[in-house]
Amino acid sequence: MPQYTYVVKSSDGQTVEGTMEAAHEGDVVNELRGRGFLIVEVKKKGGSAHKQVKSRKKVALDDVVMFTRQMATMIDAGLPLLQALSAMIEQMDNLNFKSIIEDVADDVEAGATLSEAMTKHPKAFDQLYCSMIKVGEASGMFAEILGKVATYLEEAAKLRRKVKSAMVYPSVVSGMALVITLFLLMKIVPVFKEIFEGFGSQLPMPTQVIVAISDVIRAYFLLVVLMIVSVIVSCKMYYKTENGRMFFDKLQFKLPVFGDIFKKSALSRFTKTLGTLISSGVPMVQSMEIVETVAGNATIEYAIRGATKKIIAGEGVSGPLADAKIFPPLVVRMIDVGERTGKLDVMLQKISDFYDDQVNNSVSALTSLIEPLLIGFLGIVVGGIVVCMFLPIFKLSEAVN
To answer: What is the pLDDT of residues 194-216, one digit of tens each?
Structure first.
């Protein structure tokens, strides 16, 4: 029989290498999985490797939502798993995601479970996704759990779109104001400056200020751009550090108007994720650890990490969350009620729905309020420059009269 070399991970994280005789590569994979190992590589001597593959590009959330919902529908209708995966491959338009599903289908056909196959592609299926799939496989409620995952992802995608919509309009208008202002200062103001120099009289102070700003920007434009780029790059590099991420994520919650929306959406994501995991049968400690990885904000992650340690030590959920000082009293009280009544998942879902409504109302109010404010800001900036440029002409007209 042919010999195969393998590299696997044990349950305690140790790397194990060895060789094994088997008729087929799938037999080696099944044998190693039966021993509780996580497959890293299996290779026939002189042949190609069966490796853990990681996708290079992150898959869009909307694509994962569509895939999950359609898989849930097909599995619930009684279609075998491999046939459902094959059907998804045939209709998948995203080539990157299609190749991932093909790899997943190949691993499942070779004997892996769906959760094991998906774990190899963290940019498409995160820890939360794989953990819930694993629970569904173990509990025999695979179709139901897959439906819960689809519902969770749909609600998460909807919330993300709402928060983004609150940011897009002011960003676009602010960008337009910046471009128009730079155009006026670099192209229009210099023309007026040449005209004013022929007047032979002192310009009004507002006009002098605008002209001076125009001269500085024209003379040091590349330097200013280089400084702005340097600041942005430095901030991104600092954000990649633990202290930097904590600083900027704390600052995010303190922003005027937008900070409240960011915090409410983070709380909604936390409660929705934790509630979904608990209702799916994932143990509390494991649920908290998973929620920490998908919290999306370093401040929330730090609070969850501290609460998890206290839960492991034997405390409840509401007490450690209250000690973190980041979760509002409403959240802590409702979680406490959920613990006392044995309906924690229901209470968490109610909290999530409450904050979803809060985000909806905040975004709607912000959209209706910010439009006139931004238009007024744009009018003041552009109109101010125009008025400053025409002040000398008005002064000249008065002198002629």
So the answer is: 877 766 667 788 888 888 888 88
pTM for this one? Answer: 0.65
- Residue in this structure with the two tokens 């633990």, named with its chain if needed: 242
Burial 166-189 (b: 16+ CB within 10 A, else e): beeebeebeeebeeebeebbeeeb
Concatenating the DSSP letter of every residue in 377-388 gives HHHHHHHHHHHH
Region at 145 (left for phi over 0; alpha for psi -120 to 50; beta for the rest): alpha
3-class DSSP state for residue 84? Answer: helix
Q: Which strands, in side-by-side order, build the sheet including 3-9? A: 15-21, 3-9, 38-44, 49-51
Q: What is the DSSP letter of 314?
A: T
Of 341, 320, 262, whose CA–CA distance to 331 is shortest? Answer: 320
Q: What is the pLDDT of residues 141-162, one digit of tens each?
A: 778 888 888 888 888 888 778 7
Q: Distances from the Cα of 21 to the Cαs of 6, 9, 161, in angstroms?
A: 11, 19, 53
Measured distance CA(204)–CA(388) in Å, rounded: 8
